[in-house]
Specification:
By secondary structure, the chain is an alpha/beta fold. It contains 20 helices and ten strands.
């Protein structure tokens, strides 16, 4: 993507959706030019009046005009800048929304990929920063034309006086621009290292402010470990920037020396012109003012262009990510409607995570018939939760095929496929919405009867009925002052209620009851089977005593199906399941 394409894209959006911004920009540019022009010209006129006219009335008139003009123009500048700030924030928020939409539609595998996150940390920050990113570039685009026009205007005036002065100023400007360009290129080349450090620093900062980590940090005295790692990341970040700024410092020292020489030449030429009589005292005042204002305008232009050169590569990356990122593929142009009685079949499915050579699943085969109540069990790391990710198309198998009703899920629209499942994952997600929104996943047009049934069947109904605002009560006290914090068991029940409300033909419960005791877990599982009598239910569990009632139990070991059958069949087999069951069962014996 060419550098100017990003600016054109932003301009097109502003032209179509933020037309008032263009009007404010034109007013500001005219005002800024007039403000600087009067600042350069009127002081000269006042000096001329004092030296040559000797009329106090003329001087007073000019001074009052200058004072009123500066106040009026300054007020307009302030108003237009304030309006532009709000408009620019709206523009940035538009692209922040685009980024949110893209990330939530991105292939799930990238969300767990550290290299992807490190590479794109700076890309994502273009909609977060105030001084940089899209917002910073919009501020630059707002002020740059006025500075550019002023530079041309002042160069024209000084060019008539002496071209050496103009040449000295332009050379000084070119050197500065070269320095900033080189620095921005080096900064961009280190974006992965900087992104990695920033991401790690943000993580440590986040957990230090997260009350969920507060108990462990205090109880186990982990503060020192976190602080040490936090300091290491800060030092790595500082060292990276230190190398970059050292280069900039060396170059700027050269520029400072050259700038002093340029100032000496320009002032010397003016003083010599006054001594020679070719420049009057009032004009000397004007030229000194113009030189200072031109230097300021050139410096501002330089900084703006340098900032653009620094930020545009990240904005280019941002638009490239928005346009070309790997999305969850949708086959909505050729939808496949599946009938009821859904069957799931895995044929020689193998899988390993990206950037890993270890097979999590190794030629796995099993089938789940419609309406069956299945339990998938096994030790940690045997691939139980990975199966859920594959069924949802969060990942694709490295080898083999997953079918629903004899159709490869690659051929099924991803949104339609996921609509077939109600899933409760190990990590329970509760959002800072109302209880009703957390369960129904919508703000309005929800089924109140289904909501009530979901709450009653997870034993949450009575508790919520006692709340002042009932199901409309907000959750998470750290987000809402009046919010409610749920216990671990209540969060799990809330998530189960969400799955019941969705009423999908296949329900998957991936260790959703770890906060419940064994008896409560078994009771809940049996109740779920009763509620979901006509649906396919998959339980993933460590507690073997809670899933004895299932139609079929599938035991995973080393990424393969080690045993499969009913509880009675597996116990009679006296294999792996039998050993695990006996090992766990002794803890529940009286």
């Amino acid at each position: 993507m060419k550098l100017n394409n990003s600016l054109i894209r932003i301009y097109k959006y502003i032209k179509e959706y933020e037309q008032r911004f263009l009007g404010v920009f034109i007013i500001f540019t005219i005002t800024e030019i007039l403000y600087c022009f009067l600042n350069a010209i009127i002081p000269k006129m006042m000096v001329e009046t004092l030296y040559f006219d000797k009329e106090e009335t003329h001087f007073t008139e000019i001074f009052l005009f200058f004072l009123v003009s500066m106040c009026l123009l300054g007020y307009i500048k302030t108003i237009t800048l304030n309006i532009s700030n709000s408009k620019i924030t709206r523009i940035k928020n538009h692209y922040a929304k685009k980024l949110f939409e893209k990330i939530t539609n991105l292939k799930y595998q990238y969300i767990e990929d550290a290299d992807f996150l490190n590479n794109n940390n700076s890309t994502f920050s273009v909609v977060e920063d105030y001084d940089g990113g899209i917002e910073g570039v919009c501020h630059i685009l707002f002020s740059l034309p006025a500075n550019f026009i002023l530079c041309i205007f002042f160069v024209g005036i000084l060019g008539k006086l002496n071209l050496i002065i103009v040449l000295a100023l332009l050379i000084d400007w070119a050197i500065k621009l070269k320095i900033y360009k080189r620095f921005s290129n080096r900064m961009y080349s280190k974006k992965q290292d900087i992104g990695n450090s920033k991401r790690h620093m943000n993580y440590y900062y986040k957990i230090s402010n997260d009350f969920n980590f507060g108990k462990d940090i205090r109880l186990f005295k982990i503060k020192k470990n976190i602080l040490n790692d936090y300091i290491k990341e800060i030092n790595k970040y500082i060292q990276t920037l230190k190398k970059l700024y050292k280069i900039q410092l060396n170059l700027e020292n050269i520029d400072i020396l050259f700038g002093i020489v340029c100032d000496f030449i320009m002032v010397g030429i003016l003083i010599f012109s006054v001594w020679k009589g070719t420049v009057s005292i009032p004009n000397f005042t004007m030229y000194i003012t113009i030189i200072n204002m031109l230097k300021t305008s050139l410096q501002n232009t330089n900084e703006d262009i340098s900032k653009l050169l620094c930020e545009l590569p990240y904005i280019d990356d941002f638009f490239k990510f928005i346009d070309e990122g790997d999305l969850d593929e949708s086959n909505s142009h050729n939808p496949i409607e599946l009938k009821n009685n859904l069957r799931i079949k895995l044929e020689n499915v193998s899988f390993k995570y990206p950037n890993s050579d270890k097979l999590v699943l190794d030629h796995m085969n099993f089938e789940i018939n419609a309406g069956e109540k299945i339990a998938i069990v096994g030790a940690n790391g045997t691939g139980k939760s990975t199966i859920v990710k594959l069924l949802m198309k969060f990942y694709s198998p490295s080898d083999g095929i997953i079918k629903v009703n004899d159709i490869d899920i690659k051929e099924i629209d991803i949104n339609y496929l996921r609509s077939l499942y109600s899933v409760i994952f190990q990590d329970i997600c509760i959002y800072p919405f109302s209880i009703q929104e957390n369960i129904t996943c919508c703000e309005e047009n929800f089924d109140e009867r289904k909501l009530e049934i979901s709450l009653k069947n997870t034993n949450l109904y009575e508790k919520i009925e006692r709340l002042q605002n009932g199901a409309k009560s907000k959750l998470i006290k750290s987000f809402h002052p009046e919010g409610i914090d749920l216990s671990g068991g209540e969060k799990q029940k809330m998530a189960i209620a969400r799955a019941i409300y969705k009423d999908a033909p296949i329900a998957i419960f991936d260790e959703p009851t770890s906060a419940l005791d064994a008896i409560a877990e078994e009771d809940l599982y049996k109740r779920l089977c009763y509620l979901l009598e006509n649906k396919t239910v998959i339980f993933i569990s460590h507690r073997l005593t809670s899933i004895c009632f299932c139609d079929k139990i599938i035991l995973f070991k080393d990424g393969t199906v080690a045993e499969s059958g009913t509880y009675t069949e597996l116990m009679q087999l006296k294999g792996e399941f039998y050993k695990m069951f006996k090992a766990q069962g002794k803890y529940y014996e009286i």
